[in-house]
Design a protein that fits this description.
By secondary structure, this protein is an alpha/beta fold. Helix content is 32%, strand content 19%.
């Protein structure tokens, strides 16, 4: 079963543009974004919300998703480390997309695709139970209480994510914000996930995942004295 179609969303929160792009970044966007972007995500291009052909996209490889890839360090690292996987990166911030495209050129990885927009629009066209793993690394914390409903760890995002993940698929969350972890531990299990582990200095110790790549956001948090939290969930059967 696929999600019901709907008009273009208007309730996207957060910035989509930041500092003026460098000339090289403008070149990456002009030359590479179209080739790496998934087709048929916009309602205007796919009014019936026909699901993506995942077999054609991935070549039969397991499919992973990174939600909000920031500058793209983790996404490119995982694509290079696991060429037998296919990874979709979703990020609405144009500056982050431009940074990722530069890293893709440098690394020469080809086992990935991008959606430069709202991940919920991607969920609309992903087939159910197609994801083997998902990553949420240092998401926008939306620190004000009245904005907590904008966080990814709310039913508006978690329920569609759960539908798209296979039973037993792994969902990783990394953040330096204690209240974000509080909400994560409260909201993720009822959406259809089982808590597997909590590690990191924010939980009193323990290493990150063995293949973890520390992002620029984590390095900034460490410099400013904030502790990382790493949480692992599995999609329930």
């Amino acid at each position: 079963m696929t999600d019901a179609p709907h008009p273009e969303r208007r309730n996207f929160y957060g910035r989509t543009h930041g500092k003026t792009l460098r000339a090289s970044q403008k070149t990456y966007l002009a030359e590479d974004l179209g080739k790496l972007s998934l087709p048929g995500i916009r309602v205007a291009d796919n009014p019936d919300r026909t699901p993506l052909d995942i077999a054609a996209l991935t070549g039969g490889r397991p499919l992973w998703l990174e939600v909000g890839f920031g500058g793209g360090e983790h996404l490119v690292h995982m694509a290079a480390r696991y060429p037998e996987m296919f990874i979709i990166g979703c990020e609405p911030f144009v500056n982050g997309v431009a940074m990722l495209l530069g890293k893709i050129r440098d690394a020469g990885v080809t086992n990935l695709a991008l959606h430069p927009g709202d991940v919920r629009d991607l969920f609309d066209v992903l087939p159910d139970a197609c994801l083997d793993k998902a990553f949420l690394n240092y998401p926008d914390p939306w620190p004000k209480a009245r904005h907590h409903r904008r966080r990814f760890v709310t039913p508006d995002y978690l329920l569609p994510l759960a539908r798209k993940m296979k039973p037993g698929a792994e969902f990783r969350v990394a953040t330096d914000i204690p209240d974000y972890i509080r909400q994560t531990l409260e909201e993720v299990p009822p959406a259809g996930f089982t808590l597997i582990s909590t590690t990191g200095a924010g939980f009193g110790g323990g290493a990150a995942w063995s293949d973890w790549y520390s992002t620029r956001y984590e390095q900034k948090a460490l410099r400013e004295g904030r502790d990382p939290h790493y949480v692992t969930f599995h999609r329930q059967s």
